[in-house]
Amino acid sequence: MSISESDDIYDCVIIGGGASGLACAISTARTYPKANILVMDRNPELGRKILASGNGKCNIDNVNAMHFEDVTTFFKSLGVIFTEPDSDGRVYPLSRQASTIRDACSKELQRLGVKIKLCAEVKAVRIVDSSTTYEIDIHDIAYIKKGKGEKERFVKADVQGEETLYQIRTQAIVIATGGKAGPQFGCLGDGLDFAKSLGLEIIHTQPALCPLIYDDRSYNNYEKLAGVRAMGQVNLVRDGHVIYTEFGEIQFTKSGISGICIFNVSNRYQQGDKLVLDLAPSMTEPAIGALLKDKKVAGLEGIVHARVAALIYDMIGSKKAYEPLAKLVKSITIGIKGTSGWGDAQVTRGGVQMSEVLSDTFESVHHKGLYILGETLDYAGDSGGYNLDFAIYSGIVAGCHILKKDNKC
What we know:
Blueprint (H helix, E strand, L loop, with lengths): L1 E3 L4 E7 L3 H13 L5 E4 L7 H5 L8 E2 L5 H9 L13 E2 L6 H15 L2 E3 L2 E9 L4 E8 L2 E4 L6 E4 L7 E12 L14 H8 L4 E7 L3 E3 L1 H7 L6 E10 L2 E12 L3 E3 L1 H7 L7 E5 L6 H9 L12 H11 L5 H9 L1 E8 L7 E6 L17 E3 L13 H16 L8
Parallel strand pairs: 1-11, 2-3, 2-11, 3-6, 11-20
Antiparallel strand pairs: 4-5, 7-8, 8-11, 9-10, 12-19, 13-16, 13-18, 14-15, 14-17, 15-16, 17-18
């Protein structure tokens, strides 16, 4: 490995060109028009995870989110128009294209003269010059474009030879790399490593807003339901007590259980927890038993999905044990081995401890000029726009303060 020094010195360097990083760059450049600002991202394009959010439609915020007004006002200033909120409060760009959000940010960065460096992998961050300057080691990544149209993708090239690093310096540094969720979008958790190297406390991370995986016993019982979708109530049970409840569409897969309601449950899951499903939440257990006994319904098939009914019959061993059948409809217990992997996760649970930053600026409490944003922090909201709301807000707020000595926006 060889290292070449650079004369490049910036007022502010933002590591990460995702939601929080782009918002921060725009906010900083608007607040300090003469500042020399650089945004770096390891990907060959900005906002790769933004482009994938909301299945490509970008659920940018939620009317019930804490910072809804700040975030939507910010994007309206970029010329973005929003849909009316849906029944769950979710808001999208009117175009229903995530590219609208990313492109609006890119155009504003260009107008403001913010420098962009793509395919730049940060290897290390350190403090120099008596805590007044940050030095960053960078390695350029080579990518190969493959596929066409919707199948177009960039693949990291296999480059032979010695890795060459170069260094830049900055008065302020922003870690906006996200967490570990979505490694296919370049989210590898490196920002957490940088923060740890600077002495910040990191809360243990795990995938969240993702499917849950059956334990071995439950797999043997429920893998045959793969492909079934059912509306129901999901109860997260810990040490015999229900600690959280969600209602929505439950999706059974070959390896586990999925759906938005399950994603929100995964945000609270701990090892050893179980799920108890109520597949007829609008009915009581006695009512179900009476309907079956009085033959006022065509068996369980008239209450739940036919494949679920078949499984329950098998588990009970009878079609006439009405009370046990009714009880199982209301309380199917599923053992969980854990969450699915990082590639399936929408967000990261854990990260830089929130107490490591000032709540009104997102600046480190230990190091002046160091800012931690978005999913790099220990914040994981529910599905529906809450995580983008927090990430973008953190960028907007930090940008107002990064280069202001009195820290008053």
